[in-house]
Write the structure tokens for this entry.
Amino acid sequence: MKRMFVIFAIAGSLVACNNSADSTNEIKDSIDSSATERKEMIDSSAEQRKDVIDSAAERKKDAVDSAAVKK
């Protein structure tokens, strides 16, 4: 009976160690995925803000140009 217990304990530890490696890879993949998703969100937000700033700058430039033509 003691030998069966030792065999089950060894087998259990080997199985647990094997699952631990898979779990670590899954966690790494999850973190990488989350980081990529956040980077894309930040890039998208930055692009939208750049478009707004460029648009505002273009309107101001047009206003200055039209004011210069009127004088």
